[in-house]
């Protein structure tokens, strides 16, 4: 397989440059922990450079014809599609995602998102407000300004499009900090953006560590908004750091998705959908269906099929097109997930499948964890805390009221799903589940036009669609005296 093309320097003002202090960090292939690259590490002085470039570029970019901005975003989508094989390979090497997923899902979802937002700049419509006779009041939506974006390591390429697409469409300039684990695909996207004609300073990419580069970006007085995707703990730090200039904050944080299977569900579809909900991308998804709740009448039958399917998932080299589950993205995270397996046992949980790293010699150097199914109590840590791995808890319920209480018994509220043939029940449950997204007879479906985000400790604000455009713009109210006679306030 050809060696992928990628950059390792910071991308500032349309140039790839070394960090001012010369700092670098190592990026590893999680399949064998071999060194992929040494990447320049952004520190405060580099963030200052990037923010200055974005601020300089902002007036012209915001003033550009919306249709012209859309054309550029569309050209970027085309360039990514043309570079599909290279980007898929790069994403697989960097993250451990199986190549079948990066090629067919990650890259193509990225293309679709940029194409969607390519059509959005000239549809960012305002409104006319009925006000007092003689006055015209209209509201336009104007870009926020310079946006700081922090992208997580689990879907770096896809999340780059989710954040970059609407921000650019709305007329903002961007300083994006990629995670130190997986910076390579975003740097490649930046290179493609430059090549298709994006002006200098509009897009800046500064990989680095969260507690240094991310913290400073959130604190920076030249940044008007922060969009962060990551853990709830870090999200709270972002809010605190952003208080310096009261910048807008958008947070997509952790999740602990309830996945409910009722007694009237199509068992075959529910088993397959539930496996995808938790084992796709090695369970490294904030929306993962990590709490499996089964009606007691069908629990044994469901589990019999589910455990057999989970046990059959093919672990292996993510570059092998037959591999269905690759490694976790880092050794540190592998140990974190394995520790949750130990926690489950210490709390009296029953490991029905997995709970360990695979024993196959070919996988020993990689960051693998077997598909893991645990029977646990609702109050157990593994039912309350986000594991972020191929780890699902199982519990049973008797009726709708009980399972609704179970589903909402968590601090998180990102996504959840349910499987039933009763349409009335489906809508009632969806209405009362405390989640930003609910899937009925499916799971982990999304589209560039549909809002993505959560409630409670899962954050606030929304990615995607017109909702994202509102996140990246401010309403501006303009009053015009058409033919109104103003009262004399100070009669003389």
Q: Would you spell out the secondary-structure blueprint of this structure?
A:
Blueprint: E1 10-12, E2 15-17, E3 24-29, E4 34-40, H1 44-63, H2 66-82, H3 84-95, H4 99-118, E5 127-129, E6 135-143, E7 146-151, H5 156-169, E8 173-178, H6 184-196, E9 203-205, H7 210-219, E10 225-229, H8 232-241, E11 248-252, E12 258-261, H9 267-279, E13 291-295, H10 299-312, H11 331-346, E14 350-353, E15 372-375, H12 381-384, E16 391-397, H13 400-407, E17 412-413, E18 415-419, H14 423-432, E19 437-440, E20 455-456, E21 459-460, H15 465-471, E22 473-481
Parallel strand pairs: 7-8, 7-10, 8-9, 10-11, 12-13, 12-18, 13-16, 15-16, 18-19
Antiparallel strand pairs: 1-2, 3-4, 5-6, 6-22, 11-21, 14-15, 17-20
Helix pairs in contact: 2-4, 2-6, 3-4, 4-5, 7-8, 9-10
């Amino acid at each position: 397989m050809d060696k992928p093309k990628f950059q390792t320097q910071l991308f500032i003002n349309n140039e790839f440059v070394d960090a001012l202090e010369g700092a670098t960090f190592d990026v590893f292939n999680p399949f064998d922990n071999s060194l992929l690259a040494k990447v320049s590490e952004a520190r405060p002085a580099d963030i200052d450079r990037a923010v200055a470039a974005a601020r300089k570029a902002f007036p012209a970019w915001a003033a550009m014809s919306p249709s012209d901005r859309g054309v550029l975003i569309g050209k970027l989508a085309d360039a990514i599609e043309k570079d599909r094989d290279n980007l898929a390979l790069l994403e697989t090497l960097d993250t451990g995602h199986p190549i079948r997923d990066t090629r067919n899902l990650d890259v193509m979802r990225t293309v679709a998102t940029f194409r969607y937002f390519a059509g959005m700049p000239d549809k960012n419509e305002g409104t006319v407000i009925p006000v007092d006779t003689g006055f015209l009041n209209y509201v336009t939506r104007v870009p926020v300004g310079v946006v700081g974006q922090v992208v997580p390591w689990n879907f770096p390429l896809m999340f780059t499009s989710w954040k970059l697409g609407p921000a650019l469409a709305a007329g903002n300039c961007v300083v994006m900090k990629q995670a130190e684990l997986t910076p390579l695909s975003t740097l490649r996207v930046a290179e493609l953006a430059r090549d298709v004609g994006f002006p200098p300073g509009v897009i800046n990419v500064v990989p680095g560590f969260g507690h240094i580069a991310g913290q400073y970006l959130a604190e920076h007085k030249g940044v008007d908004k922060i969009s962060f995707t990551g853990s709830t703990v870090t999200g709270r730090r972002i809010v605190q750091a952003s208080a310096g200039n009261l910048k807008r904050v958008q947070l997509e944080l952790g999740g602990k998705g309830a996945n409910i299977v009722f007694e009237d569900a199509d068992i075959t579809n529910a088993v397959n959908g539930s496996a995808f909900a938790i084992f796709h991308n090695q369970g490294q998804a904030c929306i993962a269906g990590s709490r499996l709740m089964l009606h007691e009448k069908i629990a044994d039958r469901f589990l019999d099929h589910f455990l057999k399917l989970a046990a059959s998932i093919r672990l292996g080299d993510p570059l092998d097109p037959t591999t269905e589950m690759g490694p976790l993205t880092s050794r540190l995270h592998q140990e974190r997930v394995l520790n949750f397996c130990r926690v489950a046992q210490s709390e009296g949980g029953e490991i029905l499948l997995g709970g360990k790293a695979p024993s196959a010699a070919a996988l020993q150097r990689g960051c693998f964890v077997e598909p893991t199914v645990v029977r646990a109590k609702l109050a157990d840590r593994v039912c309350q805390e986000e594991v972020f791995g191929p780890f699902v808890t199982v519990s049973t319920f008797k009726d709708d009221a009980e399972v609704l209480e179970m589903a909402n018994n968590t601090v998180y509220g990102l996504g959840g799903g349910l499987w039933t043939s009763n349409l009335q029940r489906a809508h009632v449950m969806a209405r009362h589940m405390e989640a930003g997204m609910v899937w009925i007879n499916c799971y982990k479906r999304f589209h560039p036009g549909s809002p993505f985000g959560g409630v409670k400790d899962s954050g606030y604000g929304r990615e995607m669609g017109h909702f994202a455009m509102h996140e990246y713009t401010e309403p501006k109210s303009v009053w015009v005296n058409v033919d109104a006679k103003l009262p004399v306030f100070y009669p003389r």
